[in-house]
Amino acid sequence: MIIPEIADYEVRRELLRANKAKGIARLDDLAKLLEYLPLTTIAMRQAAQFWAQARQQGQPTAGDKTIDGDMILAAQAITLEIPDVVIATTNVGHLSRFVPAELWQTIAPS
Fold first, then answer.
1. What is the CATH number of domain 2-106?
2. Largest alpha-carbon pair distance within the chain?
3. How many CA atoms lie within 13 Å of 54's alpha carbon, on the beta-carbon side?
4. First to last CA, the chain
5. pTM for the full predicted model
6. Cα–Cα distance for residue pair 45/11, rounded to 1 Å
7. How confident is the model at residue 110 (pLDDT cuts 50, 70, 90)?
8. Which of 45, 46, 72, 101 could serve as 95's disulfide partner, Cβ 3.0–4.6 Å?
C-alpha cells in the first residue's frame, strides 16, 4: 500500500480545518508505516492531460475551476508504472476511467 501525497493533502486539510489533532497524529503515523508517493512534475502533467481529456469527452470529474484531486490521484498511480496498480477509493466511477480503481472496502491486503 502506498499513500499518494494528494490523498494525504485531502484528508489532512479537513483534519486541520476541524482542529482534529488526534487525527493528524494518526495520519502522520500512517505515513511513517507505509510508502509515501510525493507529487512530481510528471504526475502533475499527466493529471493535466487527464483533466483535459475528461472535458474533451464531455465527462468532467469536477468543476472547471477546481484542482480536481481525482485526476492528480489517477496520474500519481499511472506514474508508478506498476502493471497491477489499483486505487482504493469510494469514487470508482471517476477514477476507473483512467486507472483501475475499486471500493476500498473490497480490497484485501496482499
1. 3.40.50.1010
2. 42
3. 23
4. 9
5. 0.86
6. 23
7. low
8. 101
CB-based contact 6:69 (threshold 8 Å): yes
Candidates 26, 34, 37, 25; CA nearest to 81 is 37
Instruction: DSSP for 11-77, please give it.
Output: HHHHHHHTT-HHHHHHHHHHHHHSEEE---HHHHHHHHHHHHHHHHTT--SS-TTS--HHHHHHHHH
Three-state SS at 89: strand
- The helix (run of H) or strand (run of E) holding residue 101 is strand 101-103
Distances in Å between the Cα of 35 and the Cα atoms of 38, 46, 51, 57 are 10, 21, 26, 34
Torsion angle (degrees, nearest 10) of CA 99, 107, 6, 69: 50
Sequence ranges of the domains in the chain: 2-106
For the cut 70, the answer to whether the pLDDT of residue 23 exceeds it is yes
